[in-house]
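Section 5.1 Outputs to date
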Amino acid sequence: MDTPTQTRAEERNLLEMHIATEHRERRFESKEVVFDLKGLTVFYGSFKAVRDIDLSIPAKQITAMIGPSGCGKTTVLRCLNRMNDLVEIARVEGKVEYHGVDLYHSKVDPVEVRRRIGMVFQKPNPFPKSIYDNIAFGPKIAGFKDDIDELVESSLRRAALWDEVKDRLKESAMGLSGGQQQRLCIARAIAVKPDVILMDEPCSALDPIATGRIEDLMAELKSEYTIVIVTHNMQQAARVSDMTAFFTAEVNEQQDRRTGVLVEFDATESIFTTPSDERTEQYVTGRFG
């Protein structure tokens, strides 16, 4: 009988094997697809939160998800690294493929998925530990054997935070400003060497100066990582993203419930200047939402 450790290793190897094969097959493509959503539908109990989402997200670009409140943007984002698994009443139908691998296959380890696909949340959530330990914690748990000091420094440098904290690494992360905490959370995500960084309203709790720094950081990081961001700020989406997906909500008047649907997905410039759907034009021009 397999031990839990053996089973976990087999699941991880399955994901790694499929991704390695997919990279070999796609290495000559000019626009590699990282996520391919096919008919994605998500339920919370009997409530259908989003339905029939078809979406292909490209590598090494910033993809923004925009739309009014209640249109399912965060629900879709959380499907990309199986965060909805943590919601007891959530049920996912359709397919979410990551480098051609079905993320919801029974032999794919959700812990390994979340290592490869990191997430930064709306509100900065540093651990109640030192700045150093916030970065080192994840790699240590994952069995990192190399120079942890070097990893901490490189992660903080990539998150444009090293110069601000290098003399107080042993101090509590809770003493950092909101913007610094959010960059620390990005550094923490980077430290486990992900392929993708998901960001759920990462600047909504920050002032304009801190927001600008996060946006500059995203622009720098996209050469190394695929970034998917949910934002209510259309100006931010226009500034930072390469591709934009516009969602809206279908309202069931009898049940007073809203189900999210994808209206269109295109290059950000096209979405904001020449959208193909009237609903998108009404939203980006401020006529609804």
